[in-house]
Write a structure and sequence with these properties.
With about 425 residues, the protein is an all-alpha fold. About 85% of the residues lie in helices and about 0% in strands.
Length: about 425
C-alpha cells in the first residue's frame, strides 16, 4: 500500500496542478480580458478537447491496463500507438479546418481552435508516453511533466493578459506549452522507463485498434456528453453566455479531480488484482475507493451549493458574473452524482467490463443532446446547466444498476 499511497500523492499534485491551472486561467481571462473573450477561449478549448478525445482513440486507459500487465512490451504498445497518432493527426486537422470554415465566420475563433488542436496533438503524444508512468506506478514523473506544461502556459498567458497583447497570442502560448510537455515526456520516458523506439509492427497495429475499439466508442460519446453544452451555447446563444457557463464549470465540475486522484492512483493496482483473480482483495479495495469518495465528495458539493454567491464575489468583481451563481448551484448537484459515478466507471474498466461503461456513456450522451436541444432555446444557459444535472443523475443510476450485477462492490460498510 506504500506504492498506492505514493501514487495517490502524485495524482493529487497532478490533478491539482491541472485544476488550479484551469481555474486560474478562467479567472485571469475573466478579470483581465472580459467574459466575451473567456467565451472564445472556452469554445476553442472545448472544440480542441473534442478533437483530442477522437485523436486519443481510447488508447489511454487501455495502455495503462495492458502495460501494467505486460511491462516488457511497453515500447511495443507506446511506439505503435504514437505511429497511429501521427497518421491520424493530419486527417483530423483537415476535417476540423473544413468544418470550421463552413460553420463559423469569426476568423479569431477559427485560428484559436486550430492552434488548440495542434497543441492537443502534442498533448496526445505526451499523454501516451505518460501512460507508461502510470503502468509502472511511477506517477511522480507525470506530475513533473504536467507542472512544466501548466506553469509555462500560465506564466505566458499572464504576461499576454497583463500587458494587453493581442488575445490570440494566448493560443500560441497554449501550443508551445503542449509542445514542451511532449519533449519533457520523451526525456523522462527515455531516462526513467526505457529507451524509446517506434517499434513499428504492421501486424500488431490492427490488433491494437481492435482492442481499443470499445474505448473509442466510449470516448466519442464522452466527448458528446461532456463538452457539447459549450458548443450548443456558442451556436445558439453568444460568447458572453459561453463565458458564464465556463465560470460555472470552473467552480464545480473541475471538482471531479477528487474522484480522479483517488481512482486513478488505484487503477494499476485494481487491474493487477483482477488479472491475478484475487477477487477478495479486489472487492475490498473497491469498497475503500467508494467509501473515501463518499467522505470527501459530499461536503464539497454542499459548500459549493450554499456559498456559491460568496465564491463568485471573491474572484470576480464585475456584476455580470453574478449571473453564473445559479449555474453553480445547479452544477454542484450534478457534481455530486458525477463524483460517485467516476470511480464506479473505472472499476468497470479494470474488471474488463468496458463495454458496459461504453453503453452507459452512449446513453448519457443521447440524454444530454436531447435535453440541450430542448432546454437551451427555452431556458438559455440555465437550460444547459439543468441538462448537465439530468445527464449526470441518469448516468449515476445506470452505473449502479449495471455494475451491481457484475462487481461485488455495493455491500459497503
Amino acid at each position: 500500500m506504500n506504492i498506492v499511497f505514493k501514487n495517490a500523492i502524485a495524482q493529487f499534485f497532478t490533478y491539482g496542478i491541472r485544476a488550479i491551472s484551469d481555474f486560474v486561467i478562467v479567472v485571469l481571462i475573466g478579470r483581465l480580458a472580459g467574459i466575451s473573450n473567456l467565451g472564445i477561449y472556452s469554445f476553442a478549448i472545448t472544440f480542441s478537447l473534442a478533437a483530442r478525445f477522437m485523436l486519443d482513440l481510447g488508447f489511454g486507459m487501455y495502455l495503462v491496463r495492458e502495460i501494467a500487465k505486460n511491462k516488457n512490451n511497453v515500447n511495443k504498445y507506446i511506439g505503435n500507438t504514437i505511429v497511429v497518432l501521427l497518421f491520424v493527426s493530419p486527417v483530423l486537422i483537415l476535417l476540423i479546418y473544413a468544418f470550421l470554415h463552413t460553420t463559423i465566420l469569426d476568423s479569431i475563433k477559427i485560428n484559436a481552435v486550430i492552434l488548440c488542436v495542434l497543441g492537443m496533438i502534442f498533448m496526445a503524444i505526451s499523454s501516451t508516453l505518460q501512460t507508461a508512468f502510470h503502468a509502472f506506478q511511477k506517477m511522480q514523473y507525470q506530475t513533473l511533466v504536467i507542472f512544466i506544461q501548466e506553469f509555462s502556459f500560465l506564466l505566458g498567458s499572464f504576461v499576454v493578459l497583463f500587458f494587453k497583447f493581442d488575445f490570440i497570442i494566448i493560443f500560441f502560448i497554449y501550443l508551445f506549452s503542449r509542445l514542451l510537455s511532449m519533449i519533457c515526456a520523451f526525456i523522462v520516458y527515455n531516462y526513467k522507463i526505457v529507451v524509446f523506439n517506434f517499434n513499428f509492427d504492421n501486424k500488431f497495429i490492427p490488433v491494437l485498434l481492435k482492442e481499443v475499439s470499445p474505448f473509442v466508442i466510449q470516448l466519442i460519446f464522452t466527448t458528446i456528453y461532456a463538452r457539447s453544452a459549450i458548443i450548443f451555447i456558442s451556436y445558439l446563444l453568444d460568447d458572453l453566455s459561453v463565458g458564464l457557463f465556463e465560470v460555472g464549470m470552473a467552480f464545480t465540475l473541475k471538482g471531479i479531480i477528487i474522484s480522479q486522484i483517488i481512482s486513478k492512483s488505484l487503477f494499476p493496482k485494481l487491474s493487477q488484482l483482477h488479472k491475478e483473480s484475487n477477487l477478495i482483495e479486489f472487492d475490498n479495495l473497491c469498497k475503500k475507493l467508494l467509501n473515501i469518495t463518499n467522505v470527501i465528495s459530499i461536503p464539497i458539493c454542499v459548500i459549493l451549493f450554499i456559498y456559491s454567491s460568496e465564491i463568485v464575489g471573491l474572484f470576480f468583481s464585475d456584476l455580470e458574473f453574478s449571473k453564473s451563481i445559479i449555474l453553480i448551484k445547479i452544477m454542484s448537484i450534478a457534481l455530486f452524482f458525477k463524483l460517485f459515478a467516476l470511480p464506479i466507471a473505472d472499476i468497470l474498466t479494470t474488471s474488463n467490463k468496458q463495454e458496459l461503461r461504453t453503453i452507459i456513456v452512449s446513453m448519457g450522451a443521447f440524454v444530454n443532446l436531447c435535453s440541450l436541444y430542448f432546454l437551451i432555446p427555452y431556458m438559455g444557459i440555465k437550460g444547459a446547466a439543468f441538462s448537465m444535472l439530468i445527464t449526470e443523475f441518469f448516468m449515476f443510476i445506470l452505473m449502479i444498476l449495471f455494475s451491481s450485477k457484475i462487481i461485488r462492490i455495493y455491500s459497503i460498510k
